[in-house]
Design brief:
Chain B: It is a peripheral membrane protein. The structure holds 2 protein chains of 2 kinds. Helices cover about 75% and strands about 0% of the residues of chain A. Chain A has 14 helices and no strands. By secondary structure, chain B is of the alpha/beta class. The chains are: A mainly alpha, B alpha/beta. Chains A and B meet through helix 10 and helix 11 of A and helix 2, helix 4 and helix 7 of B. Bound molecules: adenosine-5'-triphosphate, iron/sulfur cluster and magnesium ion. The site of adenosine-5'-triphosphate has 15 residues of chain B, from helix 1.
Chain lengths: ~325, ~325
């Protein structure tokens, strides 16, 4: 088992390396000059040259690559031309916002898709099943940027229920930064109003992400549940006098968990890319918005860093699943070890 | 009479009318006996057996009457039947691996039958599960109790299933082809175990099989089913000695042939049994029956008493002219 996980871990590192290499070269292929961009339109050639030299952009591509990879191996993600800080410093500031949005969305997604799937699987083909199917499909069919804007229009402009932009009410003082997660920091500061403000700001972006992923998630979990419901062990469970609730929660669900877990892993991957997009739509100060703003001025390092960080997220979640599988299904153990 | 089945029909809804899979069958099961239901694949044995416990497919439609200990069971709400399953009627099935939940330890699944009826809980239920595993002659029961189904052998799994079916003390055990998935030696051990448990626990057993060898071994009385109907029913010895229904006779012949030359899987019955929806008119067996006559093709033979047995046939094997004239 440990051996197996180590192998998976090594694979993860390899994937990360590949992503770094590919995004590095992709970003250099773009025929744009970040130094000129940064210097401004009226800058002299000498100023531009100076900036180029400062960021090593005047060196040959291979040399730039080698120095980037050497830096990367030491955990150095390079410098941002736009913010004039190291990318690592920027990430430390913006990553918690992204993680908070991602984790809150993921939690809502899990609860929602799961309860909808259980409800739908109770009477497959029935009215409730059909209604759930239709509504989640509509949610997924709407393009995410349009959905985001529609929700903003509804809940912000029309109803004035929920705020948009940023993570916290502008006029209020944010709780002191401890973890960077505003939910946790508000609780640590013992401030219910700060917590409420945080949750209100999270609501619309999180909702946008969840609605977008709900249809597929619900369908996959529903299919897994229905498949398991027709298994012979369900008849055995009924045959010894168990009630429908025990059969669903103890027998069926436990077996449906493996396919649901597989689907969830994939959904989590999609969620990472949706979070980046939603950050831009909602002005959410996370690494997605950070990379987007950097990208607009051809500031490469933050973009590569974003690719590496989101890939790392995906690799990590896969690793976590590999650990969870044998716990969920005792038959998997013998395969893994 | 522990169980009385009257005019039991089980059908499946189709556009243009229901398809009957079991067609008005009636039989009684006596307390303490081993009642064997035999017939080819698709004859409706499992549907009949499962419907006694209310476990027929949700898509099926049932009519008639099933009385167990003077209580009507057919078309009772599931919540009421649930209290009897496991507690008064135990069940074991053909495929023990598929019938056990792969993600829970064997002992836990056995103890569950006690918990379901509030007979024991927690550690007490777990302890009794180990005791029950011991009663079905499983060596090292404590270890098997903590094992997962895929970690034990096929024979052990079926023993565990028997333990699960009997732990809450039912008086009737319905065993649907319990030995079909097992090899010959294990099969014999399993039949022996069932006979022992029957004596120890005063069990009535309904055994479903398509194996004549099993019938000869354990049956007190038998019900021969063909294409959803009763062909012949009665005392096992009488039927085995002189089968009167042409179908029973053919089953016995094919069993004798395959016993004499096991390699040569000869089938004494030509053709195949009709499937759901393609039952012929008159006697369902007539396209394959060597004794069939014109009346067989048009008229359904009624169930009639003939000595120790009852059979549904216009022209029983060895019947004299008087009988034929009466028909
Ligand atoms: N859920 C179902 N839906 C439709 N038809 C069914 C269903 N279950 C059983 N049948 C049909 O009913 C008939 C009788 O089935 P049953 O399972 O009782 O046969 P059996 O005698 O037990 O055969 P076997 O020896 O193969 O187990 C078969 O023709 C089968 O196709
Ligand atoms: S009724 Fe006719 S066809 Fe049917 S079993 Fe008897 S002889 Fe054969
Ligand atoms: Mg069957």
């Amino acid at each position: 088992m440990v051996n197996f996980l180590l192998k998976r871990f090594a694979w993860g590192i390899l994937v990360l390396l590949l992503v770094a290499v590919i995004t590095f070269f992709l970003s250099r292929v773009v025929p744009a000059d970040p130094a000129a961009f940064l210097a401004g339109q009226n800058a002299s050639e000498a100023t531009v040259q100076k900036i180029r030299a400062e960021y090593g952009l005047d060196r040959p591509l291979t040399e730039q690559f080698v120095s980037y990879m050497v830096g990367l191996s030491k955990g150095d993600l390079g410098q941002s031309i736009r913010t004039r800080r190291s990318v690592s410093t920027d990430l430390a500031q913006y990553l918690p916002a992204t993680l908070e949005l991602l984790l809150v969305s993921f939690t809502i997604y899990l609860i929602a898709s799961f309860s909808l799937a259980v409800t739908a699987a109770r009477h497959p083909g029935g009215f409730v099943d059909g209604a759930i199917r239709l509504l989640t499909m509509v949610g997924t069919g709407i393009p995410v940027f349009w959905l985001g804007m529609a929700l903003q229009f509804m809940f912000f402009y029309k109803l004035h229920w929920l705020p948009i932009g940023a993570r916290f009410p502008i006029r209020e003082t944010a709780p002191p930064v401890v973890t960077g997660f505003l939910i946790i920091d508000s609780m640590l500061a013992g401030s219910p109003s700060a917590l409420l403000g945080t949750l209100k700001h999270l609501a619309l972006p999180a909702l946008t992400i969840v609605i977008n992923l709900l249809a597929v998630g619900t369908r996959l979990s529903r299919a897994a549940l229905i498949q398991e419901q027709s298994r012979l062990y369900v008849r055995t469970a009924r045959g010894k006098g168990l009630g429908p609730r025990v059969i669903l929660y103890k027998h069926v669900l436990r077996n449906a968990l493996s396919p649901i877990l597989t689907a969830t892993t994939m959904q989590f991957g999609y969620m990472i890319s949706w979070v980046i997009l939603v950050e831009v739509i909602f002005d959410w100060p996370g690494i997605g918005l950070y990379a987007y703003q950097s990208f607009q001025v051809f500031d490469y390092s933050p973009v590569i860093a974003l690719a590496i960080v989101s890939t790392a997220g995906f690799v990590l979640i896969n690793l976590l699943m590999d650990i969870l599988y044998p716990i969920i299904d005792p038959r998997v153990q013998s395969v893994g070890s | 009479m522990i169980l009385s089945v009257r005019d039991l029909s089980i059908g499946f809804r189709r556009i243009g009318g229901d398809l009957p899979a079991v067609d008005k069958i009636s039989f009684d099961v006596r307390e303490g006996e081993t009642f064997v239901i035999i017939g080819e694949s698709g004859s409706g044995k499992s549907l009949t057996g499962m419907s006694i416990a209310g476990l027929q497919p949700a898509t099926s439609v049932t009519s008639g009457s099933i009385r167990f200990k003077e209580r009507e069971l057919l078309n009772r709400p599931d919540a009421e039947l649930r209290r009897m399953r496991g507690r008064e009627i135990g069940l074991i099935y053909q495929d023990p691996l598929g019938s056990l939940n792969p993600v829970w330890p064997v002992g836990d699944q056995i103890a569950e039958a006690l918990r379901a009826h509030g007979l024991a809980s927690g550690a007490a239920a777990a302890r009794r599960a180990v005791e029950m595993l011991d009663r079905v002659r499983i060596p090292d029961p404590a270890r098997v109790a903590t094992a997962y189904p895929h970690e034990i052998s096929g024979g052990m799994r079926q023993r565990a299933m028997i333990a699960m079916a009997l732990i809450a003390g039912p008086s009737l055990l319905i065993a649907d082809e319990p030995t079909t998935a097992l090899d010959v030696t294990i099969k014999a051990q399993m039949l022996e175990l069932l006979a022992e448990l029957q004596r120890e626990m005063a069990l009535t057993i309904i055994l479903i099989t398509h194996d004549m060898g099993v019938v000869a071994e354990v049956a007190d009385r038998i019900l021969v089913m063909y294409a959803g109907r009763v062909a012949e029913i009665g005392d096992a010895d009488a039927i085995m000695r002189t089968p009167s229904h042409p179908y029973t006779a053919a089953l016995m012949t094919s069993a004798m042939i395959s016993e004499a030359e096991p390699k040569q899987q000869l089938n004494a019955i030509v053709g195949v049994a009709p499937g759901l929806g393609s039952f012929p008119d008159g006697c369902h067996f007539h396209p394959r029956c060597p004794l069939a006559q014109d009346d067989c093709r048009s008229f359904v033979p009624p169930l009639r008493r003939l000595g120790d047995v009852a059979l549904a046939c216009h022209h029983p094997v060895g019947s004299d002219t008087a009988l034929m004239a009466e028909a």
